[in-house]
Amino acid sequence: MRSEHPATLAAAPEQGATEEATAVAHPNIALIKYWGKRDEDLVLPRVDSLSMTLDVFPTTTRVRLRADAAHDQVTLNGAPARGEALRRVVAFLDLVRERAGRAHRAVVDSENTVPTGAGLASSASGFAALAVAAAAAYGLDLDATALSRLARRGSGSASRSVFGGFAVWHAGPARGTAQEADLASHAEPVPTGDLDPALVVAVLDAGPKEVSSRTAMRRTVDTSPLYESWAASSGADLAEMRAALLAGDIETVGEVAERNALGMHATMLAARPAVRYMTPATLAVLDRVLRIRRDGVPAYATMDAGPNVKVLCRRADAGQVAAALWEAAADGTVLVAGPGPGARLLGGDGR
Ligand code: ADP
Ligand code: DP6
Ligand code: CO
Protein backbone atom coordinates (compact mmCIF):
# COMPACT_ATOMS: atom_id res chain seq x y z
CA MET A 1 0.00 0.00 0.00
CA ARG A 2 1.34 3.39 -1.02
CA SER A 3 4.83 2.05 -1.52
CA GLU A 4 5.30 4.81 -4.06
CA HIS A 5 5.04 7.29 -1.18
CA PRO A 6 7.26 5.93 1.56
CA ALA A 7 6.89 7.46 5.01
CA THR A 8 10.10 9.04 6.10
CA LEU A 9 10.82 10.46 9.50
CA ALA A 10 14.07 12.30 9.00
CA ALA A 11 14.76 14.28 12.17
CA ALA A 12 17.07 16.83 10.61
CA PRO A 13 16.18 17.20 6.95
CA GLU A 14 18.25 19.06 4.47
CA GLN A 15 17.06 22.47 3.45
CA GLY A 16 14.00 22.08 1.21
CA ALA A 17 13.87 18.31 1.66
CA THR A 18 10.43 16.77 2.00
CA GLU A 19 9.42 15.22 5.26
CA GLU A 20 6.39 13.01 5.05
CA ALA A 21 4.50 10.37 6.93
CA THR A 22 1.48 8.17 6.27
CA ALA A 23 -0.81 6.75 8.95
CA VAL A 24 -3.84 4.47 9.14
CA ALA A 25 -6.64 4.62 11.71
CA HIS A 26 -10.01 2.94 12.10
CA PRO A 27 -13.32 4.42 13.24
CA ASN A 28 -14.65 3.62 16.71
CA ILE A 29 -18.23 3.25 17.87
CA ALA A 30 -19.11 4.48 21.34
CA LEU A 31 -21.07 2.24 23.70
CA ILE A 32 -21.14 5.13 26.18
CA LYS A 33 -21.52 8.26 24.09
CA TYR A 34 -19.61 11.50 23.96
CA TRP A 35 -22.24 14.18 23.43
CA GLY A 36 -21.57 17.74 24.53
CA LYS A 37 -18.45 19.81 25.11
CA ARG A 38 -17.55 21.92 28.09
CA ASP A 39 -14.78 23.65 26.13
CA GLU A 40 -15.16 24.04 22.37
CA ASP A 41 -11.63 25.25 21.70
CA LEU A 42 -9.84 22.51 23.65
CA VAL A 43 -12.51 19.90 22.76
CA LEU A 44 -13.11 18.93 26.36
CA PRO A 45 -16.21 16.76 26.75
CA ARG A 46 -18.95 16.98 29.35
CA VAL A 47 -18.91 13.21 29.98
CA ASP A 48 -16.53 10.26 29.87
CA SER A 49 -17.14 7.95 26.91
CA LEU A 50 -16.23 4.37 25.99
CA SER A 51 -15.92 2.76 22.58
CA MET A 52 -14.81 -0.14 20.43
CA THR A 53 -12.38 0.59 17.61
CA LEU A 54 -13.42 -1.33 14.50
CA ASP A 55 -11.44 -3.61 12.19
CA VAL A 56 -13.24 -2.22 9.12
CA PHE A 57 -13.32 1.14 7.29
CA PRO A 58 -9.69 2.34 7.66
CA THR A 59 -8.68 5.91 6.84
CA THR A 60 -5.24 6.46 5.30
CA THR A 61 -3.71 9.92 5.58
CA ARG A 62 -0.43 11.20 4.16
CA VAL A 63 1.16 14.46 5.31
CA ARG A 64 4.01 16.02 3.33
CA LEU A 65 5.77 19.19 4.44
CA ARG A 66 6.32 21.88 1.84
CA ALA A 67 9.00 24.47 2.61
CA ASP A 68 7.95 26.69 -0.29
CA ALA A 69 4.15 26.67 0.10
CA ALA A 70 2.10 29.59 1.45
CA HIS A 71 -0.99 27.49 2.29
CA ASP A 72 -1.88 23.98 3.34
CA GLN A 73 -3.35 21.87 0.57
CA VAL A 74 -5.84 19.23 1.68
CA THR A 75 -7.45 16.49 -0.39
CA LEU A 76 -10.22 14.37 1.09
CA ASN A 77 -11.29 11.31 -0.88
CA GLY A 78 -9.60 12.69 -4.00
CA ALA A 79 -11.27 16.12 -3.96
CA PRO A 80 -9.86 19.38 -2.57
CA ALA A 81 -11.24 20.03 0.93
CA ARG A 82 -13.09 23.33 1.27
CA GLY A 83 -14.99 25.32 3.86
CA GLU A 84 -15.33 23.85 7.31
CA ALA A 85 -13.58 20.56 6.42
CA LEU A 86 -10.48 22.48 5.24
CA ARG A 87 -10.62 24.90 8.17
CA ARG A 88 -10.62 22.02 10.68
CA VAL A 89 -7.55 20.37 9.13
CA VAL A 90 -5.64 23.67 8.87
CA ALA A 91 -6.46 24.53 12.50
CA PHE A 92 -5.20 21.09 13.50
CA LEU A 93 -1.97 21.52 11.53
CA ASP A 94 -1.49 24.96 13.14
CA LEU A 95 -1.56 23.25 16.51
CA VAL A 96 1.03 20.69 15.43
CA ARG A 97 3.22 23.44 13.92
CA GLU A 98 3.05 25.47 17.12
CA ARG A 99 4.20 22.47 19.17
CA ALA A 100 6.92 21.56 16.70
CA GLY A 101 8.09 25.17 16.42
CA ARG A 102 7.93 24.91 12.66
CA ALA A 103 6.13 26.98 10.06
CA HIS A 104 6.13 24.70 6.99
CA ARG A 105 2.78 24.28 5.28
CA ALA A 106 1.72 20.77 4.31
CA VAL A 107 0.04 18.74 1.63
CA VAL A 108 -2.49 16.37 3.21
CA ASP A 109 -4.11 13.55 1.26
CA SER A 110 -6.69 11.48 3.10
CA GLU A 111 -8.83 8.58 1.95
CA ASN A 112 -11.73 7.33 4.01
CA THR A 113 -13.19 3.92 3.32
CA VAL A 114 -15.97 4.77 5.77
CA PRO A 115 -18.72 7.04 4.42
CA THR A 116 -17.82 10.63 5.36
CA GLY A 117 -20.16 12.52 7.70
CA ALA A 118 -22.73 9.71 7.85
CA GLY A 119 -22.62 8.91 11.55
CA LEU A 120 -20.08 6.13 11.05
CA ALA A 121 -17.23 8.02 12.76
CA SER A 122 -15.20 9.34 9.83
CA SER A 123 -14.05 12.23 11.99
CA ALA A 124 -12.63 9.69 14.47
CA SER A 125 -10.58 7.69 11.98
CA GLY A 126 -9.82 10.88 10.03
CA PHE A 127 -8.32 12.91 12.86
CA ALA A 128 -6.62 9.93 14.52
CA ALA A 129 -4.82 9.21 11.23
CA LEU A 130 -4.02 12.90 10.76
CA ALA A 131 -2.66 13.21 14.31
CA VAL A 132 -0.29 10.27 13.86
CA ALA A 133 0.83 11.30 10.37
CA ALA A 134 1.20 15.02 11.13
CA ALA A 135 3.07 14.45 14.41
CA ALA A 136 5.54 12.22 12.59
CA ALA A 137 5.93 14.50 9.58
CA TYR A 138 6.62 17.53 11.80
CA GLY A 139 9.03 15.55 13.95
CA LEU A 140 7.02 15.40 17.20
CA ASP A 141 7.85 12.31 19.24
CA LEU A 142 4.56 11.56 21.02
CA ASP A 143 3.45 8.46 22.91
CA ALA A 144 -0.07 7.05 22.47
CA THR A 145 -1.48 9.12 25.33
CA ALA A 146 -0.12 12.34 23.87
CA LEU A 147 -1.38 11.36 20.40
CA SER A 148 -4.82 10.73 21.87
CA ARG A 149 -4.81 14.20 23.48
CA LEU A 150 -3.71 15.71 20.17
CA ALA A 151 -6.28 13.79 18.06
CA ARG A 152 -8.98 15.03 20.46
CA ARG A 153 -8.35 18.58 19.27
CA GLY A 154 -9.38 17.60 15.72
CA SER A 155 -12.47 15.63 16.73
CA GLY A 156 -13.29 14.41 20.24
CA SER A 157 -14.08 10.87 19.16
CA ALA A 158 -10.68 10.64 17.43
CA SER A 159 -9.00 10.49 20.86
CA ARG A 160 -10.37 6.94 21.19
CA SER A 161 -9.33 5.72 17.71
CA VAL A 162 -5.67 6.15 18.67
CA PHE A 163 -6.19 2.95 20.69
CA GLY A 164 -7.38 -0.43 19.46
CA GLY A 165 -10.16 -2.53 20.99
CA PHE A 166 -12.12 -0.95 23.82
CA ALA A 167 -11.06 2.50 25.02
CA VAL A 168 -12.36 5.03 27.52
CA TRP A 169 -11.91 8.77 26.95
CA HIS A 170 -11.64 10.67 30.22
CA ALA A 171 -13.46 13.98 30.36
CA GLY A 172 -10.91 15.21 32.93
CA PRO A 173 -11.63 17.41 35.95
CA ALA A 174 -14.40 19.99 35.60
CA ARG A 175 -12.37 22.45 37.71
CA GLY A 176 -8.71 23.42 37.43
CA THR A 177 -6.62 25.18 34.82
CA ALA A 178 -7.01 24.70 31.09
CA GLN A 179 -3.62 23.01 31.05
CA GLU A 180 -4.64 20.50 33.72
CA ALA A 181 -7.87 19.76 31.87
CA ASP A 182 -6.04 19.30 28.57
CA LEU A 183 -3.53 16.90 30.14
CA ALA A 184 -6.21 14.80 31.80
CA SER A 185 -8.50 14.44 28.79
CA HIS A 186 -7.25 11.52 26.72
CA ALA A 187 -8.28 7.96 25.98
CA GLU A 188 -6.78 4.74 27.32
CA PRO A 189 -7.44 1.04 26.78
CA VAL A 190 -10.17 -0.61 28.85
CA PRO A 191 -9.65 -4.06 30.34
CA THR A 192 -12.21 -6.65 29.27
CA GLY A 193 -12.92 -10.18 30.35
CA ASP A 194 -13.94 -13.10 28.19
CA LEU A 195 -15.83 -11.23 25.51
CA ASP A 196 -15.86 -12.09 21.83
CA PRO A 197 -17.90 -9.19 20.48
CA ALA A 198 -19.00 -8.13 17.04
CA LEU A 199 -20.64 -4.94 15.86
CA VAL A 200 -22.92 -5.60 12.92
CA VAL A 201 -23.15 -2.35 10.98
CA ALA A 202 -26.30 -1.60 8.98
CA VAL A 203 -25.44 1.16 6.51
CA LEU A 204 -28.87 2.56 5.65
CA ASP A 205 -27.79 5.89 4.20
CA ALA A 206 -24.15 6.60 3.38
CA GLY A 207 -24.79 10.24 2.50
CA PRO A 208 -23.48 13.13 4.62
CA LYS A 209 -25.65 14.39 7.47
CA GLU A 210 -27.27 17.80 7.24
CA VAL A 211 -26.18 18.83 10.73
CA SER A 212 -22.62 17.93 11.79
CA SER A 213 -21.99 16.19 15.12
CA ARG A 214 -20.29 19.36 16.34
CA THR A 215 -23.25 21.62 15.60
CA ALA A 216 -25.81 19.10 16.86
CA MET A 217 -24.13 18.54 20.21
CA ARG A 218 -23.65 22.28 20.73
CA ARG A 219 -27.34 22.90 20.09
CA THR A 220 -28.28 20.05 22.42
CA VAL A 221 -26.21 21.38 25.30
CA ASP A 222 -27.46 24.93 24.73
CA THR A 223 -31.18 24.21 24.32
CA SER A 224 -32.25 20.69 25.31
CA PRO A 225 -34.02 20.44 28.69
CA LEU A 226 -33.14 16.73 28.72
CA TYR A 227 -29.39 17.17 28.36
CA GLU A 228 -28.38 17.52 32.00
CA SER A 229 -30.27 14.43 33.12
CA TRP A 230 -28.73 12.31 30.36
CA ALA A 231 -25.25 13.60 31.23
CA ALA A 232 -25.83 12.76 34.90
CA SER A 233 -27.04 9.21 34.13
CA SER A 234 -24.14 8.63 31.77
CA GLY A 235 -21.69 8.37 34.70
CA ALA A 236 -23.65 5.47 36.18
CA ASP A 237 -23.90 3.88 32.71
CA LEU A 238 -20.12 4.02 32.37
CA ALA A 239 -19.49 2.34 35.73
CA GLU A 240 -21.94 -0.43 34.90
CA MET A 241 -20.46 -0.81 31.43
CA ARG A 242 -16.90 -1.17 32.75
CA ALA A 243 -17.96 -3.85 35.23
CA ALA A 244 -19.91 -5.73 32.55
CA LEU A 245 -16.97 -5.60 30.12
CA LEU A 246 -14.66 -7.03 32.78
CA ALA A 247 -17.17 -9.76 33.58
CA GLY A 248 -17.60 -10.62 29.89
CA ASP A 249 -21.33 -10.02 30.35
CA ILE A 250 -22.48 -9.17 26.82
CA GLU A 251 -26.14 -8.82 27.84
CA THR A 252 -25.40 -6.02 30.30
CA VAL A 253 -22.87 -4.40 27.98
CA GLY A 254 -25.55 -4.34 25.28
CA GLU A 255 -28.39 -3.17 27.50
CA VAL A 256 -26.38 -0.28 28.88
CA ALA A 257 -25.09 0.70 25.42
CA GLU A 258 -28.58 0.68 23.95
CA ARG A 259 -30.14 2.79 26.69
CA ASN A 260 -27.23 5.25 26.67
CA ALA A 261 -27.59 5.76 22.89
CA LEU A 262 -31.39 6.08 22.97
CA GLY A 263 -31.04 8.59 25.80
CA MET A 264 -28.56 10.61 23.74
CA HIS A 265 -31.01 10.67 20.83
CA ALA A 266 -33.76 11.77 23.23
CA THR A 267 -31.64 14.78 24.24
CA MET A 268 -31.34 15.80 20.58
CA LEU A 269 -35.04 15.32 19.86
CA ALA A 270 -35.73 17.75 22.70
CA ALA A 271 -33.27 20.35 21.36
CA ARG A 272 -34.66 23.57 19.85
CA PRO A 273 -34.88 23.20 16.97
CA ALA A 274 -34.89 19.39 17.22
CA VAL A 275 -32.06 17.33 15.76
CA ARG A 276 -33.31 14.02 14.43
CA TYR A 277 -30.94 11.58 12.79
CA MET A 278 -33.16 8.52 13.04
CA THR A 279 -35.24 7.76 9.95
CA PRO A 280 -37.99 5.21 9.25
CA ALA A 281 -35.22 2.84 8.09
CA THR A 282 -33.47 3.29 11.45
CA LEU A 283 -36.65 2.41 13.31
CA ALA A 284 -37.25 -0.65 11.12
CA VAL A 285 -33.81 -1.95 12.11
CA LEU A 286 -34.45 -1.16 15.79
CA ASP A 287 -37.70 -3.16 15.58
CA ARG A 288 -35.79 -6.01 14.04
CA VAL A 289 -33.21 -5.95 16.84
CA LEU A 290 -36.05 -6.36 19.35
CA ARG A 291 -37.28 -9.40 17.41
CA ILE A 292 -33.79 -10.91 17.32
CA ARG A 293 -33.66 -10.56 21.11
CA ARG A 294 -37.11 -12.06 21.55
CA ASP A 295 -35.84 -15.02 19.54
CA GLY A 296 -33.20 -15.49 22.23
CA VAL A 297 -30.11 -13.95 20.61
CA PRO A 298 -28.45 -11.16 22.63
CA ALA A 299 -28.24 -8.21 20.20
CA TYR A 300 -28.34 -4.53 21.11
CA ALA A 301 -28.46 -1.40 18.97
CA THR A 302 -26.49 1.82 19.11
CA MET A 303 -26.76 4.84 16.80
CA ASP A 304 -24.57 7.90 16.42
CA ALA A 305 -25.14 11.23 14.72
CA GLY A 306 -26.68 9.65 11.64
CA PRO A 307 -29.37 7.16 10.62
CA ASN A 308 -27.14 4.08 10.55
CA VAL A 309 -27.39 1.36 13.19
CA LYS A 310 -24.66 -0.74 14.81
CA VAL A 311 -25.70 -3.92 16.58
CA LEU A 312 -23.57 -5.41 19.34
CA CYS A 313 -23.67 -9.20 19.68
CA ARG A 314 -21.44 -12.21 20.24
CA ARG A 315 -19.18 -12.94 17.30
CA ALA A 316 -20.67 -16.43 17.19
CA ASP A 317 -24.11 -14.89 16.57
CA ALA A 318 -22.94 -12.24 14.11
CA GLY A 319 -23.82 -14.21 10.97
CA GLN A 320 -27.37 -14.76 12.15
CA VAL A 321 -27.75 -11.14 13.26
CA ALA A 322 -26.36 -9.88 9.95
CA ALA A 323 -28.81 -12.05 7.98
CA ALA A 324 -31.74 -10.64 9.96
CA LEU A 325 -30.50 -7.08 9.47
CA TRP A 326 -30.12 -7.60 5.72
CA GLU A 327 -33.86 -8.34 5.62
CA ALA A 328 -34.67 -5.25 7.65
CA ALA A 329 -32.20 -2.90 5.96
CA ALA A 330 -34.18 -2.49 2.73
CA ASP A 331 -31.73 -0.86 0.28
CA GLY A 332 -28.90 -0.74 2.77
CA THR A 333 -25.83 -2.91 3.25
CA VAL A 334 -24.70 -4.85 6.29
CA LEU A 335 -21.20 -5.73 7.43
CA VAL A 336 -19.71 -7.43 10.46
CA ALA A 337 -16.95 -5.64 12.38
CA GLY A 338 -14.78 -6.89 15.22
CA PRO A 339 -12.40 -5.04 17.55
CA GLY A 340 -9.69 -3.42 15.45
CA PRO A 341 -6.20 -1.97 15.88
CA GLY A 342 -5.11 1.44 17.09
CA ALA A 343 -3.81 4.15 14.79
CA ARG A 344 -0.36 3.49 13.38
CA LEU A 345 2.30 4.90 11.14
CA LEU A 346 2.95 3.07 7.89
CA GLY A 347 6.57 2.10 7.42
CA GLY A 348 8.84 3.03 4.53
CA ASP A 349 7.71 -0.07 2.66
CA GLY A 350 4.09 1.08 2.94
CA ARG A 351 3.11 -1.61 5.45
P1 ADP B 1 -18.91 11.49 11.24
O1 ADP B 1 -20.17 10.87 11.75
O2 ADP B 1 -18.53 10.95 9.90
O3 ADP B 1 -17.80 11.45 12.24
P2 ADP B 1 -18.83 14.36 11.75
O4 ADP B 1 -19.91 15.39 11.58
O5 ADP B 1 -18.39 14.10 13.13
O6 ADP B 1 -19.33 13.02 11.03
O7 ADP B 1 -17.53 14.77 10.98
C1 ADP B 1 -17.49 14.83 9.58
C2 ADP B 1 -16.36 15.78 9.24
O8 ADP B 1 -15.12 15.26 9.72
C3 ADP B 1 -16.14 15.98 7.77
O9 ADP B 1 -17.06 16.91 7.23
C4 ADP B 1 -14.72 16.51 7.78
O10 ADP B 1 -14.70 17.86 8.18
C5 ADP B 1 -14.08 15.69 8.89
N1 ADP B 1 -13.38 14.51 8.32
C6 ADP B 1 -13.91 13.31 8.00
N2 ADP B 1 -12.96 12.48 7.50
C7 ADP B 1 -11.81 13.17 7.53
C8 ADP B 1 -10.47 12.86 7.15
N3 ADP B 1 -10.14 11.66 6.66
N4 ADP B 1 -9.52 13.81 7.31
C9 ADP B 1 -9.84 15.02 7.83
N5 ADP B 1 -11.09 15.39 8.19
C10 ADP B 1 -12.06 14.47 8.05
C1 DP6 C 1 -22.59 10.64 18.50
O1 DP6 C 1 -16.28 13.36 17.81
O2 DP6 C 1 -17.70 13.63 15.75
O3 DP6 C 1 -20.58 9.81 17.54
O4 DP6 C 1 -15.63 16.46 18.66
O5 DP6 C 1 -17.22 17.91 17.41
O6 DP6 C 1 -15.68 16.41 16.16
P1 DP6 C 1 -16.47 16.62 17.42
O7 DP6 C 1 -17.61 15.49 17.43
P2 DP6 C 1 -17.50 13.91 17.19
O8 DP6 C 1 -18.79 13.43 18.00
C2 DP6 C 1 -19.12 12.08 18.09
C3 DP6 C 1 -20.49 11.94 18.65
C4 DP6 C 1 -21.06 10.53 18.64
C5 DP6 C 1 -20.78 9.80 19.94
C6 DP6 C 1 -19.38 9.28 20.14
O9 DP6 C 1 -18.67 8.95 19.18
O10 DP6 C 1 -18.99 9.15 21.32
CO1 CO D 1 -17.65 12.44 14.10
The proportion of strand residues reads: 15-25%
- Fraction of residues in helices? 25-40%
CATH fold field value of the largest domain: Ribosomal Protein S5, domain 2
Compute the average pLDDT.
94
Q: Could you say what the CATH architecture of the largest domain is?
A: 2-Layer Sandwich
Bound molecules: adenosine-5'-diphosphate, ligand DP6, cobalt (II) ion
Q: What composes the largest sheet?
A: 6 strands, mixed
Q: In one word, what is the shape?
A: globular
What CATH first level of the largest domain would be assigned? Alpha Beta
Question: What order do the helices and strands come in, and which of them pair?
Answer:
Layout: E1 20-25, E2 28-32, E3 37-39, E4 44-45, E5 49-53, E6 59-66, E7 73-76, E8 79-80, H1 83-100, E9 105-112, H2 122-137, H3 144-154, H4 158-161, E10 166-169, H5 178-184, E11 187-189, E12 197-203, H6 213-223, H7 227-247, H8 250-269, H9 280-294, E13 299-303, E14 309-314, H10 318-328, E15 333-337, E16 344-345
This protein binds adenosine-5'-diphosphate (ADP), ligand DP6 and cobalt (II) ion.
Describe the structure.
- Residues 200-327 form the Mvd1 C-terminal domain.
- Keywords: ATP-binding, Lipid biosynthesis, Lipid metabolism, Lyase, Nucleotide-binding.
- The structure is a single chain.
- This protein has 351 residues and is an alpha+beta fold.
- The chain folds into 2 domains: 20-192, Ribosomal Protein S5, domain 2 (2-Layer Sandwich); 197-337, 2-Layer Sandwich (Alpha-Beta Plaits).
- 38% of the residues lie in helices and 21% in strands.
- It is built from 10 helices and 16 strands.
- The strands form 4 sheets. It has a 6-stranded mixed sheet. It has a 4-stranded antiparallel sheet with strand order 2-5-10-11.
- Strand 13 (299-303) and strand 14 form a beta hairpin.
- The longest helix is centred in the C-terminal third of the chain and has 21 residues, at 227-247.
- It is globular.
- The termini are close together.
- 49% of the residues are buried.
- The structure holds adenosine-5'-diphosphate (ADP), ligand DP6 and cobalt (II) ion (CO).
- Cobalt (II) ion (CO) binds at residues 121, 123-124, 155, 157, 213.
